Amino acid sequence: MKKKLNLAPVFFVGPHVILFAVFVLLPTIYGIYASFTKWNLMNDPVWVGLDNYKTILFDSGSTFHTQFQNGLKNTLIFVVLSVPLLIIIPLMIAVALEHKKVKMKNLIQSILYIPGLISISAAALIWLLIFNKQLGITGNIFGSQIAWPTHQPYAWLIIIVITIWGGVGGNMIIYRASISGVAPDLYESAELDGAGAIRRFTSITLPSIRFPLIYTFVMTTAGAFNVFGQPLMMTDGGPQQSTHVLMMYIRQLAFGNGESIAGMASAMAVLLGLIILVISALQYYVMNRNAA
Amino acid sequence: MDNRPALNGQGASKKGLGISISKYISYFFLISLCLIWVIPVIFGVSTSFRSQTEVVSSGFRLFPEQWILENYVKILDNTSTAPILRWLMNSLFIATLHTFLVVVIISITGYGYSRMKFKGRDTLFFTLLGISFFPGVVNLIPSYKIIDALGWVNTSWAMIIPGLAGMGNIFLVRQFMNGIPRELDESATVDGASDFRIYASVILPLMKPILIVCGLFSFTGSWNDFLWPVIVFTDVDKMPVTAGLLLLQDIYGNYRMIGQLMGSAILAIIPTMLLFLFAQKYFVQSINLNSGIKG
């Protein structure tokens, strides 16, 4: 009996391992390989070594170089503008919601979460109307005749607004669940010792939700580097390419009109991927060390 | 003797004052946010019930002067250039089947990684988890190539199957399952129950909350996915609604048919809203990352 090979684990874990191999592992390896090739998605990739990377990083005469630089710059602007707000606002909401005298917590939470359920393509239609200078709220109530999507810094502003509106819900739920898990007697004894609200927040709440904070910070940042839908729908990369983010260039090169330049796009994707990995690792390392 | 109650009383009233001030600050903050958050949705909904002349002429109003259904009638009639009903059905099929398969896969796989004993189990799990942290941008283009090779371009399978390979939900499920007492399945094993039996009749019923939460994430994730469908679908009839809405800006002449544009957006958000209302109560209890991973 005992010598018989136990096949049960294969039935339980096997199907997912196969899916993982086909739809995650294989494409990842192939994506890295493709970044060293000249490839148009149709024919077989032709090995060109580091050529794509050299062009993207150093050939200042090439459009790929300028596209990468511009895309990366705009992506970084988005990350720097959106991530702090996507951490701080949900944290403030969660703290306010955990106030013991505040009622209707679940209703408030639902209202703030609802935009997170709306796809970017639907949300953008609504917000573009709101920011429409003739028809929307901004034009009619505030009397502003600004053409938001086609003028800076307003183009960034509306991209950030729709991002925050749709994005706070997820982190808020994580923080709220985490804060409600903190033992109440910690707060009670701190209160007896005369610790004020700010003191209680910095010395009890923050340390207790250290892990969720690191987790959301790393995930939110990585997500922000992948930004695509908001600038595509709200500004289509404009004005003058100033909101054209890296993912938009990658998609354009690989799947846009005309000949696909998938090898070059793959190299850009690998570079973006490396940036995300390095930044995630740095965040994790620094925050974990500082908090310990 | 006289001092003590007085001091206590003073302390208590000070503390009470602090709490009520912070209560009002909290309320003010939360209610203003709620208003800002909900007004765009109300404005979108009400605009979808407005006539074009009212939208253009009457200035800003939160609610229409006259509620009309004409926009929705036109949306549903326009099956040639903007077949939104078709798109909605496509999305519904994709998201429902995807969610069902996700729940099956994650519960089975989670059982494997949490309750079964086999050599290399944890090594395998953490290796896959580590690989899955590699940013998805890199596999985007080859994923398209694989979908193409499978003949899935412009089909729902392109959106239903690849997403099943993710590790995030399996991680959550394994975490949750590790919290279920081992005695439960040990006693079932002694009684001679097979792994499949234990999975189906002991563990699965206990998994309801986490599976509902993961199911909701999968459904909304699949319903709202944008980048991937924009790449995979070129055929207007086969698209899910997110990709379809991208076309609408042009089809409805960049806000020249505003009511219909808004109506389409509203139709596209109803299903995820309904699902959220249904699954809401499972939310806060299930996602407790503190107790889950801290140790």
UniProtKB/TrEMBL annotation, chain A:
<feature type="transmembrane region" description="Helical">
    <location>
        <begin position="261"/>
        <end position="286"/>
    </location>
</feature>
<keyword id="KW-0812">Transmembrane</keyword>
<feature type="transmembrane region" description="Helical">
    <location>
        <begin position="209"/>
        <end position="228"/>
    </location>
</feature>
<feature type="transmembrane region" description="Helical">
    <location>
        <begin position="76"/>
        <end position="98"/>
    </location>
</feature>
<comment type="similarity">
    <text>Belongs to the binding-protein-dependent transport system permease family.</text>
</comment>
<dbReference type="InterPro" id="IPR051393">
    <property type="entry name" value="ABC_transporter_permease"/>
</dbReference>
<dbReference type="InterPro" id="IPR035906">
    <property type="entry name" value="MetI-like_sf"/>
</dbReference>
<feature type="transmembrane region" description="Helical">
    <location>
        <begin position="154"/>
        <end position="174"/>
    </location>
</feature>
<feature type="domain" description="ABC transmembrane type-1">
    <location>
        <begin position="72"/>
        <end position="283"/>
    </location>
</feature>
<keyword id="KW-1003">Cell membrane</keyword>
<keyword id="KW-0472">Membrane</keyword>
<keyword id="KW-0813">Transport</keyword>
<feature type="transmembrane region" description="Helical">
    <location>
        <begin position="110"/>
        <end position="130"/>
    </location>
</feature>
<dbReference type="InterPro" id="IPR000515">
    <property type="entry name" value="MetI-like"/>
</dbReference>
<dbReference type="Pfam" id="PF00528">
    <property type="entry name" value="BPD_transp_1"/>
</dbReference>
<feature type="transmembrane region" description="Helical">
    <location>
        <begin position="7"/>
        <end position="33"/>
    </location>
</feature>
<dbReference type="GO" id="GO:0005886">
    <property type="term" value="C:plasma membrane"/>
</dbReference>
<keyword id="KW-1133">Transmembrane helix</keyword>
<protein>
    <submittedName>
        <fullName>ABC transporter permease</fullName>
    </submittedName>
</protein>
<dbReference type="GO" id="GO:0055085">
    <property type="term" value="P:transmembrane transport"/>
</dbReference>
